[in-house]
């Protein structure tokens, strides 16, 4: 994409995103901190998310007004119901029973609905260090804080006696976690941790499904896809926001989780997974995203869970990339414009699910910025979920090329293709004022659900580039401008000038 010279004036959508980013950079969202000076701003953000979800989905709400379900999850947890058989009452009961099983109480939560499948996020499994640590013990048995291991100390001799019962406790809490996963029809669990267990203060404070000694998760398809944590993204920032050539050091002592993916899931991807430790950050992120898209695009009805340790850095990175990639294909949130899907993704996937942007910015760990700037690396058709669907979805006797010819010849009309299929063409409501593309529905007679969207590769690219450009412009005006005062001459300071050039808002270079 050609770099823009200067920044255009902020529009209404930009101003909403700017307010969101400013609030995001001010404090971490916590559901139980609903009051305070920023309450009205946070409520506007929450209401806006619900309105954007409601454009394309019927949904129910799991209420979390005071953080009683999870302190770092939204106060209004959205459960999308279109093409879903989930009953929210049953789901809420399973959540209340299962939340102890995972780090910080961050339970398995559905956040994207695609082809009737739930794409979920969570933290990793809690280890006995969290469950039995002094604050963890209070959390489980006395309703205390869910920041169990954040301030954990070495447990006392009396507390350590509880370890004798850890198997029974794990059977109970992990059993509830498994029931929740099954209720959501989740089969695939993708673990982004680079370690098997998180060790803190000498304790195994968290674990993961892949090292559960009792093999409780053996019926699920477990994927260990280790991905660098937020600390690694300081190197990204220090390299002028350049991910190309940036390779994680896999020889560090704490890194002990090898990549492990069932062969049945890799056959169609043409990726040499044995080379993963030599990939730079761009190639690693691209290949993992291809894997996730391939999983959710399979012919079965199984859902997907993505998690890292706490579920608020690497997890929203891949959840966001999935959401934006599927949206760019016209497969989810089909009526949202680029500015709207950007707002929803920043607000819901990052802010309302507790990403600690303030802390990450202070440390220079800019994984949040990386996520949206990375969109330029996934614009091609090889990342499209439609790639394998297009020929599957064609009505009998028609090729994709013939369908495209029909689109040109019969624009805006309804043309009978056969006794079993009809072709409906219309402009996307999400494309108004920005770009155009055609939505093609291939529907069995009498069917109500959309069967397929045919979006060209160029449309996908323009949609993602528009989202990226809007993010970069708003980020530079808010977070990116904060710590860089103008020079006495009124020109942009040297550091900011490098930033603006780096992200492609000025000059001819792009990041």
Automatic annotation (TrEMBL):
GO MF term set: phosphatidylinositol-3-phosphate phosphatase activity
TM region positions: none
Superkingdom classification of source: Eukaryota
SUPFAM superfamilies per record: (Phosphotyrosine protein) phosphatases II (SSF52799)
Coiled coil start-end: none
PANTHER family the record matches: MYOTUBULARIN-RELATED, MYOTUBULARIN-RELATED PROTEIN 14
The name this protein goes by in its record: Myotubularin related protein 14
Organism expressing this protein natively: Coturnix japonica (Japanese quail)
This protein's encoding gene: MTMR14
